[in-house]
Protein backbone atom coordinates (compact mmCIF):
# COMPACT_ATOMS: atom_id res chain seq x y z
CA UNK A 1 0.00 0.00 0.00
CA UNK A 2 1.38 3.43 -0.84
CA UNK A 3 1.27 6.17 1.79
CA UNK A 4 -2.18 7.52 0.97
CA UNK A 5 -3.87 4.13 0.51
CA UNK A 6 -2.22 2.94 3.75
CA UNK A 7 -3.70 5.69 5.89
CA UNK A 8 -7.03 5.62 4.02
CA UNK A 9 -7.28 1.86 4.61
CA UNK A 10 -6.60 2.24 8.32
CA UNK A 11 -8.93 5.25 8.71
CA UNK A 12 -11.74 3.49 6.86
CA UNK A 13 -11.69 0.45 9.14
CA UNK A 14 -9.40 -1.80 7.09
CA UNK A 15 -6.29 -3.61 8.26
CA UNK A 16 -2.60 -3.13 7.52
CA UNK A 17 0.24 -5.42 8.57
CA UNK A 18 3.56 -3.61 8.95
CA UNK A 19 7.15 -4.80 8.87
CA UNK A 20 9.37 -3.40 11.64
CA UNK A 21 12.74 -2.02 10.66
CA UNK A 22 15.46 -1.44 13.24
CA UNK A 23 18.55 -1.70 11.01
CA UNK A 24 19.54 1.31 8.91
CA UNK A 25 20.54 1.00 5.27
CA UNK A 26 18.41 2.07 2.31
CA UNK A 27 19.06 -1.16 0.35
CA UNK A 28 18.00 -3.30 3.31
CA UNK A 29 14.91 -1.20 3.99
CA UNK A 30 13.93 -1.29 0.33
CA UNK A 31 14.30 -5.09 0.30
CA UNK A 32 12.01 -5.31 3.35
CA UNK A 33 9.52 -2.96 1.67
CA UNK A 34 9.50 -5.18 -1.43
CA UNK A 35 8.45 -8.12 0.76
CA UNK A 36 4.89 -9.19 1.56
CA UNK A 37 4.09 -6.65 4.30
CA UNK A 38 1.66 -3.81 3.54
CA UNK A 39 4.07 -1.15 4.80
CA UNK A 40 7.20 -0.66 6.92
CA UNK A 41 7.65 0.96 10.33
CA UNK A 42 11.07 2.49 11.01
CA UNK A 43 12.09 2.43 14.67
CA UNK A 44 13.95 5.51 15.93
CA UNK A 45 13.44 4.64 19.62
CA UNK A 46 15.52 1.47 19.60
CA UNK A 47 17.84 0.08 16.97
CA UNK A 48 20.25 1.99 14.75
CA UNK A 49 18.24 4.66 12.93
CA UNK A 50 18.97 8.36 13.19
CA UNK A 51 17.15 11.14 11.35
CA UNK A 52 19.29 10.88 8.19
CA UNK A 53 18.90 7.11 7.90
CA UNK A 54 15.17 7.42 8.59
CA UNK A 55 14.71 10.00 5.81
CA UNK A 56 16.63 7.71 3.41
CA UNK A 57 14.53 4.74 4.54
CA UNK A 58 11.25 6.59 3.89
CA UNK A 59 12.39 7.24 0.30
CA UNK A 60 13.48 3.60 -0.12
CA UNK A 61 10.07 2.43 1.09
CA UNK A 62 8.34 4.83 -1.31
CA UNK A 63 10.52 3.50 -4.15
CA UNK A 64 9.09 0.06 -3.40
CA UNK A 65 5.57 1.53 -3.66
CA UNK A 66 4.78 1.34 0.06
CA UNK A 67 3.97 3.77 2.85
CA UNK A 68 6.25 4.38 5.82
CA UNK A 69 5.50 4.69 9.52
CA UNK A 70 8.07 5.97 12.00
CA UNK A 71 8.24 5.22 15.73
CA UNK A 72 9.94 8.25 17.28
CA UNK A 73 12.46 8.32 20.09
CA UNK A 74 11.04 9.31 23.48
CA UNK A 75 9.10 12.59 23.25
CA UNK A 76 11.25 13.62 20.25
CA UNK A 77 8.90 16.31 19.03
CA UNK A 78 11.55 17.97 16.87
CA UNK A 79 11.96 14.75 14.89
CA UNK A 80 8.18 14.26 14.63
CA UNK A 81 7.59 17.00 12.09
CA UNK A 82 10.87 16.25 10.33
CA UNK A 83 9.90 12.63 9.60
CA UNK A 84 6.53 13.88 8.35
CA UNK A 85 8.38 16.41 6.18
CA UNK A 86 10.46 13.47 4.87
CA UNK A 87 7.26 11.66 3.84
CA UNK A 88 6.23 9.42 6.75
CA UNK A 89 2.52 8.57 6.59
CA UNK A 90 2.22 7.47 10.22
CA UNK A 91 4.04 8.72 13.30
CA UNK A 92 4.06 6.61 16.47
CA UNK A 93 5.15 8.24 19.75
CA UNK A 94 6.31 6.02 22.63
CA UNK A 95 5.25 6.28 26.28
CA UNK A 96 2.33 8.69 25.96
CA UNK A 97 1.07 8.49 29.52
CA UNK A 98 -0.99 11.65 29.85
CA UNK A 99 -3.30 13.83 27.74
CA UNK A 100 -0.73 16.62 28.19
CA UNK A 101 1.90 14.53 26.39
CA UNK A 102 -0.67 13.56 23.78
CA UNK A 103 -1.32 17.27 23.14
CA UNK A 104 2.44 17.89 22.74
CA UNK A 105 2.48 15.09 20.17
CA UNK A 106 -0.45 16.63 18.29
CA UNK A 107 1.16 20.07 18.40
CA UNK A 108 4.25 18.65 16.68
CA UNK A 109 2.45 16.59 14.04
CA UNK A 110 -0.73 18.45 12.99
CA UNK A 111 -1.09 21.80 11.26
CA UNK A 112 -3.40 24.49 12.64
CA UNK A 113 -6.09 24.39 13.87
CA UNK A 114 -5.37 20.97 15.46
CA UNK A 115 -1.69 21.55 16.21
CA UNK A 116 1.25 23.80 15.48
CA UNK A 117 3.27 21.85 12.90
CA UNK A 118 5.68 24.12 11.08
CA UNK A 119 5.69 24.29 7.28
CA UNK A 120 8.43 22.53 5.26
CA UNK A 121 7.19 19.25 3.69
CA UNK A 122 9.17 19.49 0.41
CA UNK A 123 10.12 15.80 0.39
CA UNK A 124 6.62 14.69 1.44
CA UNK A 125 5.11 16.73 -1.39
CA UNK A 126 7.57 15.23 -3.88
CA UNK A 127 6.76 11.68 -2.74
CA UNK A 128 2.99 12.18 -2.64
CA UNK A 129 2.80 14.37 -5.74
CA UNK A 130 0.64 16.88 -3.85
CA UNK A 131 1.01 20.61 -4.39
CA UNK A 132 1.39 23.02 -1.46
CA UNK A 133 -2.29 23.93 -1.20
CA UNK A 134 -3.49 20.33 -1.35
CA UNK A 135 -0.82 19.12 1.06
CA UNK A 136 -1.74 21.76 3.64
CA UNK A 137 -5.44 21.01 3.23
CA UNK A 138 -5.07 17.23 3.58
CA UNK A 139 -1.98 16.51 5.71
CA UNK A 140 -3.88 16.41 9.00
CA UNK A 141 -5.98 13.57 7.59
CA UNK A 142 -3.35 11.93 5.36
CA UNK A 143 -0.86 11.51 8.20
CA UNK A 144 -1.78 9.54 11.32
CA UNK A 145 -0.54 10.31 14.84
CA UNK A 146 -0.62 7.21 17.06
CA UNK A 147 0.13 7.49 20.80
CA UNK A 148 1.78 4.48 22.41
CA UNK A 149 0.08 3.02 25.47
CA UNK A 150 2.65 0.97 27.34
CA UNK A 151 2.57 1.98 31.00
CA UNK A 152 0.10 1.72 33.88
CA UNK A 153 -0.54 5.46 33.77
CA UNK A 154 -1.09 5.40 30.02
CA UNK A 155 -3.65 2.63 30.48
CA UNK A 156 -5.35 4.50 33.32
CA UNK A 157 -5.50 7.71 31.27
CA UNK A 158 -6.48 5.89 28.05
CA UNK A 159 -9.85 7.63 27.64
CA UNK A 160 -8.34 11.07 28.24
CA UNK A 161 -5.58 10.35 25.68
CA UNK A 162 -8.07 9.03 23.12
CA UNK A 163 -10.22 12.14 23.66
CA UNK A 164 -7.40 14.48 22.57
CA UNK A 165 -8.33 16.09 19.27
CA UNK A 166 -5.69 15.20 16.67
CA UNK A 167 -4.73 11.87 18.24
CA UNK A 168 -5.81 9.45 15.51
CA UNK A 169 -5.38 6.35 17.63
CA UNK A 170 -3.34 4.44 20.17
CA UNK A 171 -0.59 1.89 19.63
CA UNK A 172 0.00 -0.72 22.31
CA UNK A 173 3.57 -1.71 23.24
CA UNK A 174 3.04 -5.11 24.87
CA UNK A 175 6.61 -5.60 26.10
CA UNK A 176 6.83 -2.39 28.10
CA UNK A 177 3.23 -2.88 29.19
CA UNK A 178 4.06 -6.34 30.56
CA UNK A 179 6.97 -4.87 32.53
CA UNK A 180 4.70 -2.11 33.87
CA UNK A 181 1.79 -4.37 34.79
CA UNK A 182 4.10 -6.79 36.62
CA UNK A 183 5.83 -3.90 38.45
CA UNK A 184 9.09 -4.81 36.74
CA UNK A 185 8.94 -8.52 37.55
CA UNK A 186 8.55 -9.99 34.05
CA UNK A 187 8.87 -9.35 30.36
CA UNK A 188 5.95 -11.35 28.99
CA UNK A 189 4.04 -9.64 26.18
CA UNK A 190 1.79 -12.71 25.98
CA UNK A 191 0.69 -12.43 29.65
CA UNK A 192 -3.02 -12.64 30.44
CA UNK A 193 -3.07 -9.14 31.88
CA UNK A 194 -1.55 -7.77 28.65
CA UNK A 195 -4.19 -9.62 26.66
CA UNK A 196 -6.89 -8.12 28.90
CA UNK A 197 -5.38 -4.68 28.20
CA UNK A 198 -5.51 -5.39 24.45
CA UNK A 199 -9.22 -6.16 24.71
CA UNK A 200 -9.81 -2.99 26.76
CA UNK A 201 -7.84 -0.76 24.37
CA UNK A 202 -9.73 -2.13 21.36
CA UNK A 203 -13.08 -1.40 23.04
CA UNK A 204 -12.14 2.12 24.18
CA UNK A 205 -10.62 3.05 20.79
CA UNK A 206 -13.80 1.86 19.07
CA UNK A 207 -15.88 3.90 21.54
CA UNK A 208 -13.93 7.04 20.62
CA UNK A 209 -14.03 6.22 16.90
CA UNK A 210 -10.24 6.00 16.86
CA UNK A 211 -7.64 3.52 15.66
CA UNK A 212 -6.24 0.66 17.76
CA UNK A 213 -2.73 -0.43 16.75
CA UNK A 214 -0.22 -2.89 18.16
CA UNK A 215 3.33 -4.18 18.01
CA UNK A 216 2.81 -7.93 17.83
CA UNK A 217 5.50 -10.38 18.93
CA UNK A 218 3.94 -13.35 17.10
CA UNK A 219 1.61 -14.18 14.22
CA UNK A 220 -0.93 -15.51 16.75
CA UNK A 221 -0.97 -12.17 18.57
CA UNK A 222 -1.39 -10.33 15.25
CA UNK A 223 -4.37 -12.51 14.32
CA UNK A 224 -5.90 -11.99 17.77
CA UNK A 225 -5.45 -8.23 17.44
CA UNK A 226 -7.02 -8.17 13.97
CA UNK A 227 -9.98 -10.15 15.33
CA UNK A 228 -10.32 -7.63 18.17
CA UNK A 229 -10.55 -4.78 15.65
CA UNK A 230 -6.95 -3.56 15.62
CA UNK A 231 -6.35 -1.88 12.27
CA UNK A 232 -2.57 -1.40 12.22
CA UNK A 233 -0.32 -4.20 13.48
CA UNK A 234 3.47 -4.38 13.21
CA UNK A 235 4.77 -7.92 13.34
CA UNK A 236 8.12 -8.91 14.86
CA UNK A 237 11.37 -7.25 13.71
CA UNK A 238 13.79 -7.30 10.80
CA UNK A 239 16.44 -9.21 12.77
CA UNK A 240 13.87 -11.99 13.32
CA UNK A 241 12.99 -12.02 9.61
CA UNK A 242 16.68 -12.65 8.84
CA UNK A 243 17.09 -15.25 11.59
CA UNK A 244 13.95 -17.13 10.56
CA UNK A 245 14.89 -17.06 6.86
CA UNK A 246 18.43 -18.29 7.53
CA UNK A 247 17.24 -21.03 9.86
CA UNK A 248 14.65 -22.26 7.33
CA UNK A 249 17.23 -22.41 4.52
CA UNK A 250 20.01 -24.00 6.50
CA UNK A 251 17.70 -26.50 8.23
CA UNK A 252 16.51 -27.58 4.79
CA UNK A 253 20.10 -28.43 3.77
CA UNK A 254 21.55 -29.90 6.92
CA UNK A 255 20.67 -33.54 7.60
CA UNK A 256 18.41 -33.89 10.62
CA UNK A 257 20.27 -35.19 13.72
C1 LIG B 1 6.78 -2.53 23.35
O1 LIG B 1 6.28 -3.66 23.19
O2 LIG B 1 7.00 -2.02 24.46
C2 LIG B 1 7.12 -1.75 22.19
O3 LIG B 1 7.49 -0.61 22.32
C3 LIG B 1 7.05 -2.39 20.84
O4 LIG B 1 8.16 -2.10 20.10
MG1 LIG C 1 7.91 -0.04 24.24
Description:
The chain is of the alpha/beta class. The protein has a single domain (3-253), classed as TIM Barrel (Alpha-Beta Barrel), CATH 3.20.20.60. 50% of the residues lie in helices and 16% in strands. Helix 4 (77-85) links the parallel strand 3 (67-71) and strand 4 (90-93). Residues 94, 150, 173, 175-176 line the site of magnesium ion (MG).
Write the layout of secondary structure elements.
Elements: H1 3-11, E1 16-21, H2 26-33, E2 39-43, H3 51-63, E3 67-71, H4 77-85, E4 90-93, H5 99-109, H6 122-128, H7 132-142, E5 144-149, H8 152-156, H9 158-162, E6 169-172, H10 174-181, H11 192-208, E7 211-216, H12 219-228, E8 232-235, H13 238-253
Parallel strand pairs: 1-2, 1-8, 2-3, 3-4, 4-5, 5-6, 6-7, 7-8
The structure holds 3-hydroxypyruvic acid and magnesium ion (MG).
Residues 94, 150, 173, 175-176 line the site of magnesium ion.
Amino acid sequence: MNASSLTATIRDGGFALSAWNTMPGAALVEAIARGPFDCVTIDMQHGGHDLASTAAAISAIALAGKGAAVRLALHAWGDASRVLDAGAAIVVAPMIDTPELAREFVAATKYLPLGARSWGPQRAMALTGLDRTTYLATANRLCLSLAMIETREGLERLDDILAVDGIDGVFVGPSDLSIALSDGETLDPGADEVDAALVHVAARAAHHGKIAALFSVSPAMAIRARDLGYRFVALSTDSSYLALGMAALVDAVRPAD
